[in-house]
Amino acid sequence: MKLFFSHFLRLIILLVLVAVGTFILLSFSPVDPIRAYIGNDLLHVPPEQYARIAARWGLNQPLWERFGHWFWRLLQGDMGYSMLFNMPVASVIRERFATSFALLAGAWLLSGVLGVTLGFLAGRFLHRWPDKMICRISYLLSSLPTFWIAMLLLALFAVRWPVLPVCCAWDPGNNAGTALLSERLRHLVLPVYALSLLGMGQIALHTREKIASVMKSEFIRFARAQGDKGWSLLCHQVLRHAITPALCLQFASLGELMGGALLAEKVFAYPGLGQATIDAGLRGDVPLLMGIVLFCTLLVFAGNTISAWLVVVLNRSLERPDAL
Fold first, then answer.
1. 115-119: average pLDDT
2. Domain that residue 143 falls in
3. pTM of the prediction?
């Protein structure tokens, strides 16, 4: 219980600091929300109407007063109203994250499975050609930006060989309520694969190093002395001890995954939370940006907390006598 309250207190402090910092940074943005909202009709808007819009949105108030009003409404459960989508911020986040969840979950699972598998093979054939090839691929993927990988996949599998959709989360004319599951999955293939490559290389390299370290440990020598060998030794002993850093890295990389989703959703015109974040930034929708930043902060904090908890739990289970 004490540990729970400690994490909860740290979360509250983190959210407050992130909210204050984000609000201050957005106040220096060169984007005028009213000009971005009105668009080409700005020349036909008289100064009186411009002032009324600014007063309605609270843009004529001092910075500290605007933040105070926003923070007080947040404490009451009101995240504000999106000027871009003309609906409550909470509703925008809920709808857009429902679309992004399939992309994030698919990329998260695929990067973990591929990363652990490649790291396992590299550790199994250490300093041989499979290990060298996997290491080179992992280093290459770790250095490539997500948007470049996404554009390369689009050029190959949507333009050069048009076997997959070029954009969106469903076919034109459909929406979230009418799109079939097979249609959604087909549109997910390229974004999920592009986003999964973002963290696959790091997981593969960490798993490889851990397997190489475990193979030199005393308990592996003891297991070999008892008759364990080959793939049985690797699967039942080595992988059990090497999987811990991979799982922890997976949960700790949620922030990096969500950052990559911003670029992937923009390239594929995927109507998720990342696309909404970019649109809100370009249009100066401060309430929506604040809500998305706090929501993403909460998810990243949850991932880091789960990662720290897994380290404790898995290490305790491996330290038991029957774990060897």
1. 91
2. 98-323
3. 0.85
